[in-house]
Predict the structure.
Amino acid sequence: MTYENIRFDKKEGIAIITIDRPSKLNALNSATIKELHNALKEADAAKSIKVIILTGSGEKAFVAGADISEFADFSVAQGERLAAEGQAKLFDFVAHLSTPVIAAVNGFALGGGLELAMSAHFRIASENAKMGLPEVSLGVIPGYGGTQRLPQLVGKGRAMEMIMTAGMIDAHQALQYGLVNHVTSLDELMEFTQKIAQKIMRNSSVAIAAAITAINAGYEDGENGFEEEITQFGKCFGTADFQEGTQAFLEKRKANFPGK
Ligand code: COA
């Protein structure tokens, strides 16, 4: 598949998907959201891909938000559809992928950009990164999951303040808030992120997918995370990865997971 608004590189089991509209600070227009959906689907389906890294092109922005020029004249119904379709196609889609997704936040992550980073399974930021949900400064609220995922990650009070003030926090404050897991220099961001990806890749991809499902269940309405954990835990016992992982431990050797 060819892409115009993103770059899709595969390297040693890792897919690096780069949002590539630097002249618009990588703002998410509908074409970019569609391409991201397709690329993520392709990466998730590829047996050889064990981790997906999302990042932005250039040295200034991860993603500076949804493309404001596309929705400035929308009606109530169009606004609602924009949020619903975006959540289904990209934000919820990322959060529920069974392949781990890491956001390498290399600059501004604002509005839809921070929402995309928050949909990833975890985040690593470079020192120049700035994060915020400035939607109320435009007369709207976050519509791609931001009102739900920000409180989950930083707590209700901090999320309320960030959303109400429309302010930005820097990478170190984001680290202190637990919004990102690590902060690196911009030069080291991708290498550091790939090192974490390599650590993940040593483990059973089937067990990791089960863990993602169980963790997500605890954050979803009408689902019981503990029950889902029991189900996923049990399922693992029927996998070749479990056979190999336990056997390798007992034989005091490194596991070579078949990934099924
Ligand atoms: N949607 C559409 N275009 C965007 C954009 C967005 N969310 N964010 C940036 N751009 C465009 C700018 O319009 C500008 O395009 P132009 O050169 O054709 O005029 C280009 O990207 C560069 O942005 P600019 O504002 O000139 O850069 P800056 O360094 O002065 O400011 C920001 C950087 C991030 C502070 C500023 O771009 C900004 O506030 N962006 C909007 C953030 C936002 O509200 N996001 C939430 C959307 S719901």
